[in-house]
Amino acid sequence: MAIINVLAVLACLLLLSYVWKESLVEVIPVVLCGLVLVLYGLAILKHLSWIDGISVICIIGLGAFLGSRKREERIEFGKVCLENVKQPSFLTAIFLLLAVGICTSGKVVTWWDDVNFWATDVKSLFYLDGFAQKYGNVASEFGDYPPGAQLIKWWFLHLNPHEFKEGLAFAGYYIMNLSFMLPVFRKMKGRNVAVMFFMACALWFLPSIAEVYGYDGFCADLTMACIYGGFLFAVTQRDGKKDSVYYTRLALYLGVLVLIKSVGFIWAAFGLVFLCLYQKQQYQEQQGKTGDWKKVIPVFATPLLTGGSWMLFCLLMRRVTKTTTTAVKYMTTDEYGISGYTSDFAKAFIEAFFTSPLHKEKSLAVDLTPLGFYVCICLLVFFFYRKNLMPKKQGKLVLWYSVISGALFYGIIFIAHITIFATETQYLEAAGMISSIERYGAPFTIGTLLFLANIWMTYGERLFAGEKMPRFVKQYGTSLCLILFVALTAGYQTGYHGLVGYRAEVLDNLQERAEMVDEDALLFLEKIQVLGTTESTRVCYIQRGDEPRWVKNSYTNMEASPISVVYKSLNLDDAQTDWMVQEIRASHAEYLYVEETQADASAVFDAVTADGQFDCEMLYRIEDDGVQMRLIAVQ
C-alpha cells in the first residue's frame, strides 16, 4: 500500500494546485496539514491504518473528478499539472525531499529527548495503530505531549508496515519540516541546475544558522519554527487569493501548530496577533472599511478545536506531563515560587545572550550570538523596509512585529528558566543556557528567518530589475543572495552530520544504547514478550532501591514500547502488604514484575498471590476489584 499512499498524496497535491491556482510548493504544506488532521482523527479511533482505504478513495475521487469534466477541461487539467510539475520550484523541492529522505533513512535514535518520549511514543503508535488506551501511554511522564509530528513519522513508518525502522521516522520528520519551508522556492525562475542544487542546500542548512538539535533528533521546536514562519508569510499573501483559500491555509497551519508541542499555543497566539494587525491595516487601506472580521473566526477556532480536543483526550485518558503539572502548580498554588537561583540564571542568560554563538562550530564568516541574530533580524527587516520590498505599511508592520516579538520571546524564555525550569541547574552556566536559548528560541529565530527568506524571494527581484543588470543576475539574483547569506552563517558540520556524517557512528550508537539496558532489564523485556505488541497495557516494574536508574529506565521504556512501564524503586524489607497494594493500584498497571532482590519478597506478596507462592522475575497479571487484589502468574 506504500505506492497507493504516495500516489494519493500526489493526487491531492495536483488537484489542490489546479483548483487553487497555486504552485505545488505552496500547496505541499497545506496537504501535509490535512494529512496530519486526518491521521489525528484516525489515531483517536485507534485505526491509523484506515489511511490506506482513504488513500484509495482519494485516487478514485480524482478519477471521478476528471471523469465528470468535459474533454477540454481534462486536457486543460493535464496541461496545468504538467506545467506545475516542470516548474523549477517543484523540481528543486522534489530533489531536496528525495535526497533528504534517502540520506537520513539510516539514522537511529541518539538524542535523550527522543529516548525519553519522541521515539518511544512513535514506536507505540506504529504497533498500536493509534493512541494507547487509558493509562497505556508508554512515556508516562510525558503523556500530554501533542502528536502532530508523531503522526507524520507514523505515516512514513507505515510505508514499511512489517518492520519498525527508526530511519523512516527521521525521514518523515525532516520532510515535514522542509515542507513548510518549500514556499521559499515559489518564485524561482529558470532551470539552472547549479542554482537549483545550491538553493536546495541552502534550505537544508538554513536552520543550522541558529539551531542544531533538529539535525540529529526529533526536535519539536524546529517543527514549530517552520510552521510559524510559514504562517507569518501566508498572512501577507492576501492579494489575488479567494477568502476560502487564504483563511483555510491559515487555519490549517495553526490547527497543526498547536499539535506539535504544548507551547505551540504561544506561537499560535503570536501568529494571531500578527494576523489581526495585518487585517486591521488592510481594512484601513480600503478607504476606512471595517472589513468582515467573521472570516477570521475559523483561523481562531481551528487551533482551539485541535488543541482543545487533545487536552480533553489527555484528560480522559489520564495522560499528563510532569512539566504541565509543575506549571499548573505555579499558577494555582504557592507550592513553588521564583527560583532561588534567579540572579545566577540572569547572569548565565546575559552571558549566553551576548557572547555565546548559537551553534558551537565555526561558520564560514559569522557565528551569530542570540544578540547578534536578533540584531541581524532587525537589520534585515529595516533593509526590506527602506528598500520598499513590500508596500510601505506592510513593511513597517513586519519591522515592528519582528523587533517586538523577538524581545517578548526572549523575555518569556528567561521567565521560564526561573519558574518552570527552576530546578534545571545545568542552565546556571552560560554553556548550558545557550543550548536552551538555541533550542527553545528556534520558533523566533528560524521562524522569523524563514519568514524573511520568503519575503526576500518574493519581492527581492525588483532590486535586480535595472536595465544594466546582467540577465543572469536579473534571473537568479535573489537566489544567489539567499545562498550567500546561508553560506556565510550556517553550521556546515551540523548540517552535514545530520544528513550524511551520522552514518559513521550508527554502529557505535546502537552499541551505546544496548549497554544502557542492563541484565535485569533484559530479563524483564524477555518476560513481557508474551504480552505481544498489538494491545496497549501497563506493567508495574518494582526495582531494587540500591541505586537510581531513571536514565536507564528510559532506554528500557523504548525497548518495551508499546508496552507501558512504570517503575517503583523500593526496599522490600520495609514494605507491608497493604501499603504495597496501594502503591500498585496507584500505578494503574495491569501486570506486575518484581526483579530479583535480597529482601524477602514472598513476605510482601504471598498473601495476594493466587497460588500463595510469589516468585521474583515472574510476570503477574493483576486482578483488582478495589477491595482485594490477586496476582496471577503469566505462563
What does this structure look like?
This protein has 2 domains: 2-501, no CATH class; 516-633, Rossmann fold (3-Layer(aba) Sandwich). The chain has helices at 2-20, 24-44, 51-67, 71-86, 88-103, 112-128, 148-157, 166-179, 193-205, 220-236, 243-257, 264-285, 297-317, 322-332, 342-355, 370-386, 392-418, 430-440, 442-459, 471-489, 492-499, 506-515, 519-527, 550-560, 577-586, 601-605, and strands spanning 538-544, 564-570, 591-594, 619-624, 629-633. The mean pLDDT is 91. A 5-stranded mixed beta sheet has the order 2-1-3-4-5, with helices on both faces. The protein is 61% helix and 5% strand. It is built from 26 helices and 5 strands.
Summarize the structure.
With 635 residues, the chain is mainly alpha-helical.
Give the helices and strands, then pairings.
Layout: H1 2-20, H2 24-44, H3 51-67, H4 71-86, H5 88-103, H6 112-128, H7 148-157, H8 166-179, H9 193-205, H10 220-236, H11 243-257, H12 264-285, H13 297-317, H14 322-332, H15 342-355, H16 370-386, H17 392-418, H18 430-440, H19 442-459, H20 471-489, H21 492-499, H22 506-515, H23 519-527, E1 538-544, H24 550-560, E2 564-570, H25 577-586, E3 591-594, H26 601-605, E4 619-624, E5 629-633
Parallel strand pairs: 1-2, 1-3
Antiparallel strand pairs: 3-4, 4-5
